[in-house]
Structures are given as structure tokens and as C-alpha cells.
Amino acid sequence: MRARYVLPDFRIAVVGTGAIGGYYGAKLAYLGRDVHFLVRGDLRRVQRSGIRIRGKAENIRLAKVKCYSATADIGPCDLVLIAVKSTANAALSDLIPPLLHERTMLLTLQNGLGNEEFLARHFGAERVLGGLCFICLNRVSPGVIEHYDHGRLVVGEYNRYPAARTHDISWEFKRCGVVCTVAQNLGLERWRKLVWNVPFNGLAVVTGGLDTAAILARDDLRATALELMDEVIGAANKCGYPLPTAAALDQMKRTETMGAYRPSTLIDFAAGRALEIEAIWGEPLRRGIAAGAEMPRLTALHAQLEAIDQARQHPAK
Amino acid sequence: MRARYVLPDFRIAVVGTGAIGGYYGAKLAYLGRDVHFLVRGDLRRVQRSGIRIRGKAENIRLAKVKCYSATADIGPCDLVLIAVKSTANAALSDLIPPLLHERTMLLTLQNGLGNEEFLARHFGAERVLGGLCFICLNRVSPGVIEHYDHGRLVVGEYNRYPAARTHDISWEFKRCGVVCTVAQNLGLERWRKLVWNVPFNGLAVVTGGLDTAAILARDDLRATALELMDEVIGAANKCGYPLPTAAALDQMKRTETMGAYRPSTLIDFAAGRALEIEAIWGEPLRRGIAAGAEMPRLTALHAQLEAIDQARQHPAK
Questions:
Q1: Residues of B classed as catalytic
Q2: What's the predicted TM-score (pTM) here?
Q3: Is residue B123, in this structure, part of any structural domain at all?
Q4: Min CA distance, A275 vs chain B (Å)?
Q5: What pLDDT digit, counting tens, does each position of B16-52 carry?
Q6: Beta bridge partners of A38
Q7: ipTM of this model?
């Protein structure tokens, strides 16, 4: 085995122990990796009761969790999983530096576009990798993560071909029971995921809470979803990511088999949390338009989501 | 004066004493017309305290209101103002018959498309007139109507040119201080009003509560409103109503001067009342598509509104 970049005694940090960070971090720790969790609100509970993952296919309890309220207490790590909401990225400027040594790798597991760029800008592009999480999780109480479905992770390099370290990281996840593959072109995969997230996460919110099955049950919403998908594919192409037109129908077919799935943004919305509007809608819209794509439907959807989000943050309005 | 169709001793009924019915009925009664109000929930309060209209430009108290809980107690009238929400049209099949004699005129003051057709189908097309209310009212408590702005009424015949009776009715309203004009083509005016109602009433709801000023403050929502207007104008044209393309910019300019206006559907939404989705969005969409118009944006907006409305009616979902 030539794992030069990820060794058994690697120190791993998880920044943002919500559903995603808690899940993938606990999976690594459960099989013996040295994982250190930054835990904000839930610290006491996680110290006392650990992290629990409950699901159809797995039921894991990580009793002893190395958890911290500040990254300075963790110190330099070899790999950092970043799983705060993209709306909290500004906080990373302070959270990340204590975790860095010269070759620390930063793997963002966040949604949408712009997160790798943020990390590259602040901490150097060569550190940055991205992961796409195809999983349905919900943090139902402090330290308790409900795992509803899927679980696949796709990791890739930021603006580079996969390297030895990319495969090593993928291997580490696989070792711990996570279905993980390496993306040849991370940007392309991010756009491909947006083909789904843009319509379904968005329509779920602007319809007042429809799940995927309810959206698909209406021909008009299905048509709207397809039109949004076409716009995202058009924008991806203009931005140099060759997504085929058929990607829309592919995603539709995949969605048919999902059942009544509540997209992450709908879960955030229902829980009163901030919505990841910039990462999922704003940044793709900005890039698409800058590249000359026409995106009237995404413009309208993005505007609605922003207005809804702002109205929630300033309910007096 | 040749008022053959509307005489001083005409009996007038108001079916639906909400903001619109209460306002225009009280204006007629205040200047001595014989107006009989069907009042459902607020009957006791209106019997005791009358109808009050409060506004910047008027402050009227109609102390003695002839009000009834059933139209059978009113009996045949010469003119019936219909001002129930279009969502309650089914109830009209029972409410209207006791008010009819051979020449009773039915003037619907309801929003959107389809109300004249409903009345024509049930009670004969020759009785039916329509009125468009350009007014901002809110029934703030039983019998108390806040009059925020405007007040113009446009009356016309259903699928016919205006007749002597149309002008007589208009004259009656003018006599009572209402700015009233006669529409040469009622259908055209209904579509013209939709050019405004479709985007602004709709976007106000799907953005979580933005008023007109807040919508106009965002370039993206302004663009979305214009695109919706273009679709409505295209549909009107396909349906045989020659609205010029410039109608969109005209309406936009008019809206700039309105200030922070809360469209009626937003007021209904905030009050938890049913939304007039079919009249304002569903029927125009259906007619437009049947006539060969392309309406992807209206399709999406209508779908969202229906979903939001249904989610409110079945909050368990």
C-alpha cells in the first residue's frame, strides 16, 4: 500500500459537527482514526453521550468523541473536513488557521459553488479538495444523526486532476464503510449536483414545503424543475463544464425512485436555519450570467429564496 | 335624465359584505340608495355598529345597515353586487336565486377571470355585468373597512358592448362619490388588470410577503414581474384581447408611484384566508394555453401558489 498522504496516525479535524460533519467524522473515528471534532452548541451533550448514527442500514454509537469548543485546542491536523453551512464561511477565517501545518489538506464537504474558492483564497489553493455528499441526514438532537438514505461521497481536487492524495482519502473513507469515489473533474460534478439541487431544494421551499414526490406529482412543477435544470446545464456548459442535456432527464428519473425526499434546504427551512442561498443558487447564477447564459427562471427562483430568507431573518418587516 | 335601468327606488343587494362589498354597498347606501347586505360572520356587529369606512380621504359611518343572514330574507332585487371571494363561488348557486326577478342585474366585483362566466352559466348571460375595482381596502374588524388608496371602479357588460343600463349603473356609483367609468370591452380590461395582478399579487406571496416597493427594489424580481407581464399580454392577445406590449411598462411605471402596497392576495395570505388562485392565475393560464400561448413562468408561479395554498389548508402535510 502506497498511502503516502493519508497514514493511519493522521490527525483529522472536523470543523462543523452537524449532520454531515458528525456523520463522516464519526464513520472515520469509529474505525479507529484519530478524529477531532469542533463542536459548538452541542459540546456538553456530545462529551457526555457521544455521537450516535441511526439508520435503516446502520446503527453506530461513537461513545468517546474527542470534541473541542475551539480549534486552537485541536492544533495542527493532516486533514480537515469542513462541514459548516456555507452561510457561516466567514467564521472559517478564524477557525482554520490553528489546524494548519505546512501540508494540511482542507476537504470541504459543503454544498454548492464557491466553497473551494473561499478556502483557496484564504489558505492556498494547493490545500483544497472538495467532497460531494449524496446522502440524506438530519441531526435530530445533539449528537444524534438520523441517516435516511444513500451515503455516497465523491471527492476531488480543486481545479486539478485527482492526485495520489485524492485516492488515498477516498480509500480512507472506503475503509470506514463509506461508498466513495474520486471525481476526475470536481467542478463538473459540482455542476451536475446543482442540476438536482437548484430545482428540488429551491422548489421545496418556494412551494411552502413540498417534498420531491409531491413536486413530481404535479406536471407543472415537474415542468418547472426541468426548465431550471436546462438553465443550470446551459450555464455549466457556458462555464466550460460539459454537462450533456440528458443530465436533466437522468436526474428526473433518479428522483422518481427517491420517494418522498425532503431536500436539505427544506430541512434547514423547517428548522428555521439560514438557507445556503449563495452556494446553491446565487453563485451558479452569477457565474452563468457572467459566462453569457440566460437564466430567467433561476433569477426568479433565487430572488424568491432571498426574499423568503430575508423575511425570516427580519420578521418585523 | 333617462335612467330607465337604475331608478332611485331600485333595490340593491350586496352578496359578500367584506371589504369590497361593504365599501361600495355602503357608498351607495350612504347617499340614500336602498341597499340590502348579506352579512355572514359579522352580522351582530354590523347590526349594532353599522359599517364604518376610514381613510385618508373619507370617513363615513353608515349607522343603520339593512343586513341579513340569508338572501331569502332580502328577496328580489334590481341589482346585485357580488363581492364574495371567487373561491366561494359555489355558494352563489344557492345565495343568488332568492334575489332574482326577471330583470335582476348581477354585477360581479370579484377578481380575475371566470366569475362572469360562472354567473352566466347559472343565471343567464344577459343578467351579467362585471366591475373592476382599483382600490386598496382592508376589512380591519367587523364592519370596519380601512380605505388605503384609490377607489376607481370600471363597469362593463359580459361579452357585450356597454348598454344604457351599464351607463346608468356607472352614473349611480358616480352620484355616490365613486370614480366610475364604463368599459367598452370588459374582457380586455380584465386581462389588463391581470397584467398587474398576476405578477404582483403572486410574487408578494411566493417571496414570503414582499410589498410592491420591496419587489421593485430588487432588479431580479422586477425582471421576473416583467416576464410574467409579457406572458399575460401574450396570452391576452392569443385569446383575442389586443393588449399592447407596452402595457407591461405602463403598469410598471404606475407601480413605481404606489409606494409600499400590499396586494389583496398578500392580505388574504397574511390573514390565513383562501387565495383566489383560480381566478387570478389558474383561469388565465388555462385560457392562454388553450389558445396556444407559452406560459412557463405563469405555470411555475401558479404551481407554487397552489402548493402553498394547499400546504396551508393541510398543515399536517
A1: 193
A2: 0.83
A3: yes
A4: 14
A5: 999 999 999 999 999 989 999 999 888 999 999 999 9
A6: A15, A68
A7: 0.73
